[in-house]
């Protein structure tokens, strides 16, 4: 029993979804980076040496992904879906501590929205490229 290929959506259907998912990805990405930075600088009571190490460790994965996300690279968006799981786990764990509950919930929500937006952008971008290549 052979499976028939599912037809690709029309370009007119894909274009607004690409713009929307890319905008949602970038907003979530920069909000996540800002939340991490603001939390560590103003609310976490850490010694100064340790503070910069923690900020560096938390922001380096985002800094590596930033150029690809800004340029709209579909593979960078796909890798973001893997990397953002670290921040989701961190947010869930922080939400159990009453002193970090708001931070934890914000971190969880932003990482979840980044994951969903990047995932949808990746899917629609590859469909868009396949459609441009002439596949039906």
Short description:
With 136 residues, the protein is mainly α.
Supply database-style keywords.
single chain, 136 residues, mainly alpha, 4 helices
Task: Explain what the structure shows.
The protein is mostly helical and 136 residues long. The chain is 82% helix and 0% strand. The protein is built from 4 helices and no strands. The mean pLDDT is 93.
Secondary structure layout:
Layout: H1 11-43, H2 48-71, H3 74-95, H4 101-132
Helix pairs in contact: 1-2, 1-4, 2-3, 3-4
- Globally, the shape reads elongated
Mean pLDDT: 93
Query: Total number of β-strand segments?
Result: 0
As residue ranges, the low-confidence spans are none
- Work out the helicity level: over 70%
**Rg from Cα:** 18 Å
The proportion of strand residues reads: under 5%
* Spatial separation of the terminal alpha carbons: 21 Å
User: Number of helical runs?
Assistant: 4
Structural class: mainly alpha
Largest beta-sheet characterization: none
Q: List the secondary-structure elements in sequence, H or E.
A: HHHH
């Amino acid at each position: 029993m052979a499976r028939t290929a599912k037809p690709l959506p029309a370009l007119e259907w894909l274009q607004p979804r690409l713009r929307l998912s890319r905008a949602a990805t970038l907003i979530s990405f920069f909000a996540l980076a800002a939340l991490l930075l603001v939390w560590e600088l103003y609310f976490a009571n850490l010694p100064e040496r340790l503070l910069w190490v923690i900020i560096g460790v938390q922001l380096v994965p985002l800094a590596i992904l930033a150029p690809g996300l800004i340029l709209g690279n579909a593979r960078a968006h796909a890798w973001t879906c893997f990397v953002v799981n670290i921040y989701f786990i961190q947010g869930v764990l922080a939400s159990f501590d009453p002193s970090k509950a708001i931070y934890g919930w914000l971190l969880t929500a932003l990482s979840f929205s980044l994951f969903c937006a990047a995932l949808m952008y990746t899917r629609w971008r590859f469909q868009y490229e396949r459609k441009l290549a002439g596949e039906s």
